[in-house]
Amino acid sequence: MRFVHTADWQLGMTRRVLGARPPKEAAGGLTGEAQARFAQARLDAVSALGRLADERGAAFVLVCGDVFESNLVGPDVVARACEALASFRTPVLLLPGNHDPADAACVLRRPDLARRCPPHVTVLDTPGVHEVAPGVEVVAAPWRSKHPLTDLVGEQLAALEPAPPGTLRVLAGHGELDVLDPDDDEPARIRRDGVLAALADGRVHYVALGDRHSTWADDRDDRIRHAGTPEVTDFDEVDPGNVLVVDLEEHAAQVAVEPVGRWRFVRHDARLDTDDDLDALDAWLAGRPDKERVAVRLALVGTLSLRQRSRLDDLLAGHDHAFAAVEVLAQHSDLATVPDDADLHDLDLHGFAADAASELFAAAGEADDEARDALRLLHRLVGSER
């Protein structure tokens, strides 16, 4: 039996992708235009996985939680999601997760979704065993609130008897396994020992999980899987942008990792002390393909003169608009600006302006950050006038 395992579509995502500052126009984060392209990319990934399921002859597509970014997404997001789902020929099963739990406000139960949702889409908002095809059962462990006080997957496994002969059974859950989340104070963590026991005694034959945005397989039993998000959402994700095509038998599963996402979030560390270092950073940024779908986070260390720092500012500003975003990660950067005699000479100022610049240089030499910032600005202004 073949099916597609996916999760964490998070349609309608509006949170900032880079950093924690307000949305940027000049620095930090995706611009409004890039945000719109990023939102469309998530829908495009859904459509791509639907085509993949149809082409591979999957029995169903199982979405293990967080179909939507929240239960408060607008009707436009719901409408576009339903349009994407309508293009599928394969049945689709939607499990509520921590972003869209099956509470009183659940978007998966909203009238606007019910009106538009195609008939081949089923919401697994009721816990327990669901027969989805002859000889195939899905055991649903939906989130019923934002803060469950128990292991929802463990609850369902504890209530199961071994699957009837000839029946394949898939557990659909959402959340972190305890081996991935060491927080002992989190009551909703999924206990791996219980999952392993259920696989061993035949209560279930595959454990499909969501919540972790990185594609992952358990090293003790690779029938325990996180599909990851089909389109990248952050820099700390490992191998995102995939769905899993699962060929399931009673005692084994063959799993193919299939890429569907097109965006990339890239972190780059660079040491900048010389003009050659700046040339290398410029060349690295220039060499990135598909810049409109790439967000870059830079961690920079080193020591630059005012002239070099001004060049760096111009370099980053020049690349910024080609990329979805370019951001310098302040908390992981240790880049010092130390004026030298050549910086003062390059300004070629006279009279009062020269005296003011000399005073700023003296203060900057005593590690006055405001003086260094003023000199950087002066250096850029003089350079632009020339």
UniProtKB/TrEMBL annotation:
Gene3D superfamilies on file: 3.60.21.10
InterPro entries: Calcineurin-like_PHP, DNA_Repair-Maintenance_Comp, Metallo-depent_PP-like, UCP033093_metalloPase
Domain of life: Bacteria
Residue stretches making up the Calcineurin-like phosphoesterase domain: 1-176
PANTHER family tied to this protein: COMPONENT OF ATP-DEPENDENT DSDNA EXONUCLEASE, NUCLEASE SBCCD SUBUNIT D
Name this polypeptide is given: Metallophosphoesterase
Origin species: Actinomycetospora flava
